[in-house]
Structures are given as C-alpha cells and as structure tokens.
Amino acid sequence: MRSGSAGAWVLPPLLLLALLFFYPLLLIVREALGGDGQVPGLAHFGEVLGSRMFRSALWNTMVIAALSTVGCLVLGFVLSVLLAFTPFPGSRMVARLIDTFIALPTFLVALAFTFIYGSAGMINETFVHVLGVARPPVDFLYSQWGVILSEITVYTPFVMRPLLATFSQLDPAQIEVASSLGARALTIVRRIIFPAALPALIAGGSLCLLLTVNEFGIVLFIGAKDVITLPLLVYDLAIQQFDYASACIIAVVNIVLSLGLYTVYRFVLARYGRRRAGLV
Q1: Phi and psi angles of residue 164, each rounded to the nearest 5 degrees, phi first
Q2: Distance CA 75, CA 175 (A)
Q3: Among residues 168, 184, 239, 246, which is most buried (max CB within 10 A)?
Q4: What is the average pLDDT across 21-26?
Q5: How far apart are CA 174 and CA 178, in angstroms?
Q6: What angle do CA 118, 221, 254 make, to 5 degrees?
C-alpha cells in the first residue's frame, strides 16, 4: 500500500481505540487527580496509597494471585501430562469438558462451591445430620483459601490449553527412545516433557496471573469477610461509599500493576525465545 492509503486504514482503528479505551482511562486518571474544578495533584494519592485498607487489599491481591497461579501451573501440568501421555477411555471427552470451564462465568464456580462447601452446603449438612456435630466442620470456603481454590478451578484450563497443544506437537519417538534406554517416567518428564512445556507454562501462567490479579466475581460471590482485593475495594469505594476519587486512584494502581505484569511477561518470553534460538 502507499503511505497515504496505509494511514487511512490505520486511522479508524486508532479512533475506535481512543474512544473505547484511552478516553475512559483519561477520565479515570483525571478523577484520581482531583476531578473537575480542582487543581490536579498527588496529595490524595499519597493519602489513599498510604492507608491501611489499600495496603491490605494490595497484599491480598498479590498473595491470592501468586498462590492461584502456582496452583494452576502445578495442576494444569499434571493433568495435561496424564491426558496427553497416559490416554484412557474417555480422555478426549475429559479434555473437552475441562475446556468448557473457559466459556463459563467465573462466579458460577464460586456459587457451586457455596452449595458444596458452604456453611449450609452438602458436605456440612451431611456432617451435621449424620455425625451430629454441633458446628459445620468445613469452614475454609469463606477465607482466602476458598478464593484461591475457586480461582484454581476456574483458571487451570487456561494453562492446560497451550500445554495440550504443545504436547500434541511433541515427537513421541523421543519418549519411546528414552524409555527403551531405561529412563524412568519422572526422568522423561524432567528431561523431555518439561523443557518442551516451558513456553506454554510461561504463557498460561502469565495469563492466569493477570486474570487473578483482576478477578472480581469470585471474590464477591465467596463473600469472605476479611478478603478485600483491589478490584473489590474499587467496587466498595465507588458503589457503596460514593468515594469516586479514591476508587479511581486504586483503579489506576490496578491498571499499572496489570500493565507491569504484562510487560514482565513479554520480557521473559522474549528473552526465553532468544535463549532457545541461541541454543538451537
């Protein structure tokens, strides 16, 4: 294309992006800096970011996101290896069933866990009526661990999808040769399968980390009393307390955090790609 023609094709997507993304982002930043009729400043930034509620929400967000991502990586890798290299009757159906979790709203898992593990859920009701215990014995759901378990259940398929695609391209001859030479299963996983899966683990783990940092529905539906994350704090300040300035400040921090994690992911993936190209 000629330069003028190329510019004409680029202009509509840029305008659409500016209207749907950059303009709302600009409004959030303006509100965080003081809103209409006020001199922009960072005084309120320091007040909000130095508050105990923000530090607690930031800590909860990072801990939940980190532990959920690690859980997704471990569970996703184990399940993918089993489905790809130890096929059993119905393994394809199981893989497709796991994929359906990607299409489901995240709050449905939290709602299902409430019916199963909640104070009046199936397990606790069984213990109360059958064993005659006075209090429900299973009470982890309304805590940080309940949120983490829900997020692992929801986001593990996001790790498994790239892993299964990678394993489908792995040459079975490598595993057969290693096995014929006496290599044990754990050695094959460590020396052949895991190195091949590393790029998919980086991609899937990074996606899980970004999604769990910004997760809102699961935390809201679990309703853990002392588990307030950054998205939930934005909701609480904006919708319940009508403190839009503070909510926008925390929203800006959340955006910066997400973009920072995405930048780190791109840097690590690019560096790993260059390293592998150099080795090859």
Answers
A1: -65, -35
A2: 22
A3: 246
A4: 80
A5: 6
A6: 140
Q: Are 145 and 226 in contact (CB under 8 A)?
A: no
Cβ burial of 63 (10 Å; 0-12, 13-18, 19+) is: middle
Do 136 and 127 form a contact (C-beta atoms < 8 A)?
A: yes
Give me the chain's average pLDDT, please: 83
205-242 pLDDT tens trace: 988 999 999 998 888 888 777 889 999 999 998 888 88
Domain 44-279: which topology?
MetI-like fold (1.10.3720)
- Predicted TM-score (pTM) of the model is 0.83
The CB density around residue 268, as the number of other CB atoms within 10 Å, is 12
Higher pLDDT, 4 or 90: 90
Q: What gap in Å lies between CA 48 and CA 81, rounded to an integer?
A: 46
User: At residue 148, what is the residue type?
Assistant: I
Nearest in space to 109 (alpha carbons), one of 218, 211, 209: 218
Comparing 120 with 49, which gets the higher pLDDT?
A: 49
Which CA distances in Å does 34 have to 24, 44, 150, 216, 244?
16, 8, 37, 26, 10
Q: Each residue of 165-207: pLDDT tens digit?
A: 898 888 888 888 888 888 788 888 888 899 889 889 988 998 8
Instruction: Extract the tokens encoding 176.
Output: 């057969």
Separation CA 139–CA 133 (nearest Å): 13
Per the CB < 8 A criterion, the answer to whether 99 and 80 are in contact is no
The single-letter DSSP state of residue 184 is -
- Exposure string for 215-243, b = 16+ CB within 10 A, e = fewer: bebbbbbbebeebbbbbbbbbbbbeeeee
Output the six-digit token pair for 242.
């009508």
pLDDT reported for residue 280? 46
